[in-house]
Amino acid sequence: MKFLNTTAMTLVMAVAANATLADASKDAELEALKSRVEALENRDTTQLNLGDGTTVDIYGYVKFDAFYDFDFNQGDTAFVNAIGEPENATSGNFGSTLRQTRLGFRSTSSTSIGEIKGQLEFDLFASGGTSELRLRHANIKINDTWTFGQDWTNFMPLNHYPTTVEFNGPVGITFARQAQVRYTGRVGNEFEYSFSLEENAVSSNDPVVTGAASYTTDRFSARISGLVGTVRSGGEEEDQYGVTLSGSVSPWEGGLFQATYTTGEGLGAYLIGFGDPIVGGQANEVDAYTIEFRQQVGNHWNFGISYGREEYDQATSTGTLDFTDLQTVHVNAFYSPTDDLTFGAEYIFAERESSSGDTIDADRVQLSAQFNF
Predict the structure, then answer these.
(1) What is the pLDDT of residue 30?
(2) How many angstroms separate the CA atoms of 159 and 140, rounded?
(3) Phi-psi region of 128 (alpha: psi -120 to 50; beta: other; left: phi over 0)
(4) Cβ distance 295 to 267 under 8 Å?
(5) How far, in Å, CA of 164 to CA of 173, rounded?
(6) CA distances from 352 to 142, 267, 272, 316 (A)
(7) pLDDT of residue 233
(8) Which residues of 220-253 are buried (b: 16+ CB within 10 A; e: fewer)?
(9) Which of 117, 286, 325, 358 makes an SS bond possible with 141, Cβ 3.0 to 4.6 Å?
(10) Distances (CA, A) of 291 to 248, 250, 256, 261, 360
(11) What is the pLDDT of residue 128?
């Protein structure tokens, strides 16, 4: 960009030096040249034009997280089902990570059958706690109607997902990216519906079928989605189903209330708590929900609190312990001195309840710095 600015300034100065000898038409040419130089200087340098109507956008962010677990080590992300286990006990433990750092590419092409978009996105959350590229999204979209590839599951209320510093967010909400074929239709600007055939997030020989419908205005939105399939565990197969209701409202400037509710059987791998889908030869029934309130203050500050809960009919073993009920509270604040840089601070309270009724809780504090590009 420094070379571009220097070259641009040289061009403008050279033309300006001869402008006094030019006629009116030359003056017009000079103004046109200045306009072209200005356009070059203000160009979005993250976008590549490949010609033939195809552009590629490079996007992502670098994110640094520092956290302190007061009671039980939960790792790079706050896993509630890790608390209580004796090997995770601590009198205080500090950690940091950059594994949430993300890199993605989006392409757009104008073709004879309409607009075709492609997406390829990675983060650094490899298995075993290592920082290696992990595939998040890889998909093709035709006219924003057909989707082929890996994307957010159609069962997930993505637009109503609570905002947190910590990667997972509160328990009680669905979270999965699945290989799928999806059709999306729209009626006007406010109503949208979609259907998909997806790879199951739970062990299964069958795909899942999902359907969703949403209604969105400037201050209100609502969505309902459903899922049916089968799950397998220990050589046993059971029916699987789920329903999610979610919505949001902005009652005043900068304010946001939103909530989600999920119920069903065999949904463990779709939820943050990751309860077993089958226990004792029966599909594990679950009720889960989240509630969030956020408030924007001025141009730079945003504050929020969210609560999540998952209640299972049957206990899930985590080693020496089990759980039937998980709860979390996230209280956070974000400060953005520029559009691309955000600092975050968050307090997290987590609690698990066992099949015997015993409860164990833990506290965690997390700080972050994120630069978007």
Answers:
(1) 46
(2) 21
(3) left
(4) no
(5) 13
(6) 44, 18, 13, 11
(7) 84
(8) ebbbebbbebbbbbeeeebebbbebbbbbebeee
(9) 117
(10) 10, 14, 11, 9, 22
(11) 75
> What pLDDT is attached to residue 26?
42
Q: What span, in angstroms and rounded, lies between the C-alpha atoms of 11 and 241?
A: 66
Q: And the tokens for 258?
A: 């939103």
What pLDDT sits at residue 149?
98
- Amino acid at residue number 286: V
- The 3-class SS string of the chain reads CHHHHHHHHHHHHHHHHHHCCCCHHHHHHHHHHHHHHHHHHCCCCCEEEEECCEEEEEEEEEEEEEEEECCECCCCCCCHHHCCCHHHECCCEEEEECCCCEEEEEEEEEECCEEEEEEEEEEEECHHHCEEEEEEEEEEEECCCEEEEEEECCCCCHHHCCCCCCCCCCCCCECCEEEEEEEEEEECCCEEEEEEEECCCCCCCCCEEEEEEEEECCCEEEEEEEEEEEEEECCEEEEEEEEEEEEEECCCCCEEEEEEEEEEECCHHHECCCCCCEECCEECEEEEEEEEEEEEECCCEEEEEEEEEEEEEEEEECCCCEEEEEEEEEEEEEECCCCCEEEEEEEEEEEEECCCCCEEEEEEEEEEEEEEC
